[in-house]
Amino acid sequence: AARSPAPAASVARLVPGFVPHFSLIAFVLALLATLAWIWLVRWRTGRHRAALWKTLVLPAGGTALCWMLLMTLWLPPVDYARSYVPQVRAVTERVGSAACLSTLGLGRPHIAALRHHGNFTLRLLAEGTPACRWLLVSPESLGNLHNLIDLNQWRFGGTLRRPTNAGDDLLLYERMTP
Fold this sequence. Notes:
Layout: H1 7-14, H2 24-45, H3 54-73, H4 75-82, H5 85-95, E1 100-104, H6 108-118, E2 121-124, E3 134-137, H7 142-148, E4 154-162, E5 165-175
Parallel strand pairs: 1-2, 1-3
Antiparallel strand pairs: 3-5, 4-5
Helix pairs in contact: 2-3, 5-6
């Protein structure tokens, strides 16, 4: 009989590159919330006099439990999926300890991520010779690149993708030394 993929395999497919880690605090909070829900169900199904507000306790408690479990157990993969850290890490692996990157067409999220997570100094590419050895270009700005620099002096270093967003690429170029 065919078996559905394990939950871990599903998460790995949805969030490629995510490395899960065990958090005792998150586990204890999730366990306490689950135990509180079990107590709430036992209390509600006990022999208590019916009151209008008691019918709302189980749905409200269940909603609170689901939110608590989501925030404690699923927040790390969600944070990773929305983060630019893997893409900045890929840039860092390619450029090494270079502190300076020329950029063309990068949006504010990329600029903030490169400055914060990569500690790069970013210089906007203008006509003439770029100030840095490395150049990061958004694919949307590629058509304008040949107007700004001589592409014969640059080597394409690769496309750097965000693992969880296939449409969010950066193109890396390295200046060739004469």
